[in-house]
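User: Show me a protein chain along with its predicted structure.
Assistant: Here is one chain, sequence first, then structure tokens.
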Amino acid sequence: MARLIDSTSKTIIPHLEIANTFFRRFVGLQFRSSLPPESGIWISPCSSIHTCFMRFPIDVWMLDRNGVVLQSKRNVCPWRIVIAPQGTHSIVETMIDTLSLPDGQRVLVSHT
């Protein structure tokens, strides 16, 4: 397990799952009924996602190699495809309205 922190070392997601293998990236949040409060999933490497077989909407943040937010998508419903902008290296997914990260903010994944 890991956590997502901002550039001032403030924890913004205390329970962050790591999806950095083919299988974990492939499965992602499929078939789950929800995510626990204050949790999310970090998918790396990743340049696009789908929400097929998901049962709930999510918020999505697309990050470059340095953890800078390039773009976000709010309330992405099941059965959608999100193509991230060029330069995206990883994606963070959370329940809707869990987090607010402006474009240009830098975040870090801290392994605990």
